[in-house]
Specification:
The chain has about 190 residues and is an alpha+beta fold. The protein has three helices and 13 strands; from the N terminus they run E-E-E-E-E-E-E-E-H-E-H-H-E-E-E-E. Strand 1 and strand 2 form a beta hairpin. The termini are close together.
Length: about 190
């Protein structure tokens, strides 16, 4: 199996088990879904209604209150223990466009330096830098409507590695993650 690690932090961000679409040789769009955060959820598949009238008949129980008590997370983020980027000074408000833009510029410089240090073909480095310009604008203008995550060892408040951005397809129901291809390195396990 292939695991993809952040080229800056070494954090595992993705594996080949996910449905991935490569866009313009620069980004990966990774299909994900919402799953319960806790693995301690009892799922009832029986056809009988609950004997307790206070429980909703959702088929999911989480300690007393039914489905409303279940915190849902993105499967990709849960699988790789990605931390949601939030700033306690912003009271869990999504990252602003200005903050994302500033952090992303620093990140691009780090990735470019890492690629050059690895001896990556200069033409491939150019694919990255040119592609960043194209896709960054699209992502940045919508960043306040997205969720952002970072690797398990990275600083949640001032990340040095990749920000994994989770957005939704046009249907508003299907989440997908945006991951920069050149910010990853493969590890075979």
């Amino acid at each position: 199996m292939i695991i993809y690690k952040d080229i800056i932090t070494g954090d595992e961000l993705l594996s080949e088990t996910y449905d991935v679409t490569e866009i313009d040789g620069v980004i990966y769009e990774v299909e994900t879904k919402r799953v319960p955060e806790s693995d301690n959820i009892e799922v009832n598949f029986g056809g009988n209604p609950s004997e307790n009238p206070d429980e909703t008949d959702t088929g999911i129980e989480s300690g007393g209150g039914g489905q409303d008590d279940v915190k849902m997370v993105y499967e990709l983020c849960k699988s790789f223990q990605l931390g949601e980027v939030e700033d306690e000074r912003r009271k869990n408000v999504p990252i602003t466009k200005g903050q994302f833009d500033e952090e992303f510029k620093r990140y691009v410089k780090k990735v470019k330096a890492a690629l050059e240090k690895k001896g990556t073909d200069p033409a491939e480095v150019k694919v990255f830098t040119d592609g960043v310009k194209k896709h960054f604008k699209r992502i940045s203008k919508n960043i306040e409507n997205c969720d952002t995550f970072t690797g398990s060892t990275d600083d949640l408040f001032e990340p040095s590695g990749m920000r994994v951005v989770v957005d939704y397809r046009d249907d508003g129901m299907t989440p997908y993650a945006i991951i920069w291809k050149h910010g990853l390195e493969e590890m075979k396990v």
